[in-house]
What we know:
Blueprint: H1 2-22, H2 30-40, E1 46-48, E2 52-56, E3 60-66, E4 76-80, E5 86-88, E6 97-102, E7 106-114, E8 119-128, E9 143-145, E10 150-153, E11 158-165, E12 174-178, E13 184-186, E14 197-202, E15 206-214, E16 219-227
Parallel strand pairs: 2-8, 10-16
Antiparallel strand pairs: 1-3, 3-6, 4-7, 5-6, 7-8, 9-11, 11-14, 12-15, 13-14, 15-16
Amino acid sequence: xxxxxxxxxxxxxxxxxxxxxxxxxxxxxxxxxxxxxxxxxxxxxxxxxxxxxxxxxxxxxxxxxxxxxxxxxxxxxxxxxxxxxxxxxxxxxxxxxxxxxxxxxxxxxxxxxxxxxxxxxxxxxxxxxxxxxxxxxxxxxxxxxxxxxxxxxxxxxxxxxxxxxxxxxxxxxxxxxxxxxxxxxxxxxxxxxxxxxxxxxxxxxxxxxxxxxxxxxxxxxxxxxxxx
Length: 228
């Protein structure tokens, strides 16, 4: 009779754990407790994105901070150090994201401050001018070399040179010339010297240049040819 009484508490414990397991109860892990505590712990505002930004003059851009639920939009105040370089793009001054407009080239600092904690988030803004296309730049070019600008061939060998042209450029506007025709000559003059591609033949050893000119705007592509 005593043996049965000793076994009963053990069976009860096993039965209790079985019931709890079936009900979906699990013992909280220490790591989970720490995670919950860290999640509930108050935090302050933090920066969204990069601290340093480069903006083209005239562009509208947005800066943003991350904030906890305890911080309201009204607690966030934005300030521009030099408003001649950057200004607010709207009337809003208290929010977690604010839009600005780049006015002129220069560098300034924009700060978002949490008025409850005095925590500040700084952004360094550099405004740049739009680069103007210069004469001969790729933005203005109408013809481009196709392949290498430097070529080598042997005497009596044939060579084909070609340029790529932008839309609107006609083949009859592209004129080919040879600096020294005793070294390199047109393969067949009867075909003309106006086209986006041209064939040549090596005459004697030496070095010369071949130029394709867009007669509409005088733009040129020059190849250097060595005959061996």
